Please model this.
Amino acid sequence: MASLIVTGGVPLSGTARVSGAKNAALPILAASLLARSPILLYDCPQLRDVENMLSILAALGVKNERSGGTLLLDASCADAYVMPQGLSKALRSSIFMLGPLIARFGNAVCTFPGGCEIGHRPIDLHLRGLSMLGVRIKEEHGLILCDGSDLSGADIHLDYPSVGATENIMMAAVAAKGDTVIRNAAREPEIEDLAVFLRKLGCGIAGEGTSTVYIRGGMEKTDPRAVISHRVMSDRIVAGTLLCAAAMTGGEIALENARATHVASALAKLREAGCSVDTGEERIYLRGPKRLREIKLIETLPYPGFPTDLQAQFFALCTMAEGTSIIVENVFENRFKHGPELLRMGASYTQKDRTVILRGVPRLMGARVAARDLRGGAALTLAGLAAEGETVIENAELIDRGYESLENTFSALGARIRRENGDTKEEP
Ligand code: UD1
Model:
């Protein structure tokens, strides 16, 4: 297992470009199965989850070639609808493949998906939505068998605005007979990016980014020789993570390829903590204060509320903010695994169910800690950057699922951070 080794206390300074968004790239890759023409995808992040998705697509017959952040995909020869079991288990987002597989082949077979251990993350909303589109679903020996040969449009009301379920239903509904409406749909910016991409493939979608999404049944024919190109939106969670790091180290950074409106809820909390924030087109600038102030209340909610994927990073920030901060995690249960690790670094908090009350300490102390999930691992890295002395973060592979070499990004901003891979040492 790899570790990140951080010597804290250096204020971050400089400019960083934010990568393409993992959570936009994954459903877009799944949707590429619907294209008969080649696709050029720019700013596709080089992450383990993305590589796993590409392997799943390859097993279904989708060709891909990568050159840096650019991917060339060709799904014209895709010929299988049974997903490889091991890979589906390794990646929760493999569930996104159900919609496109049903749309393309009328059938899909997959296993129950795996992914980050944050709560038990059911898929009932995905399956209920698909069955409302006329998909007959059977579960046999841990496999989900979907027969979508009579796919028909429907009026679907989601009990909860699930991001994945909204995306999955959108991708299946484009091939249905008749139109579909998704009510109480998720409004995340990644859904808008998927809709933009689907329109390029000849799908009729409207209302994305609001809680009612309309999908026209039946795709328009596109010229099979014309290359479809798309740039993946920038990663708002990576942006939020880098801004937190600058705030916690009393640093000063500028982010390029960052959309302020996508992180508005996080920027409001950073200002409340005493940071000075300026925004421009595709650019965010932040200067951290000498000492952070408490954040009265952070409540994670579906977009445009505060994102659950930034909860851990703000938890780390609040451990060193003057006064008492409160965090309520509403989206996922069991998403405070970074808490006990931060206690080892001198943090002080109490937890009751989904609520944490943090009493800020003047400084964190370096310690040996372990990442338990992707965002929690990033939060521990931020704590290490701000702490006195050396912090070792074990299980760094978990962090690699969502960040393209976080250590390189931080060392370019002046941090003292390096990676150690098992026995062999590697300089950043
Ligand atoms: C997506 C993001 C993830 C983020 C989450 C919430 C991707 C690849 N991942 O995950 O990083 O943390 O949105 O912003 O885009 N739920 C059900 N039944 C379902 C589906 C979800 O009960 O069928 C529940 C979940 O357990 C969770 C809540 O709904 O409590 C939100 O989940 P959802 O919005 O579906 O998140 P994901 O799409 O899995």
Notes: The longest strand covers residues 2-7.
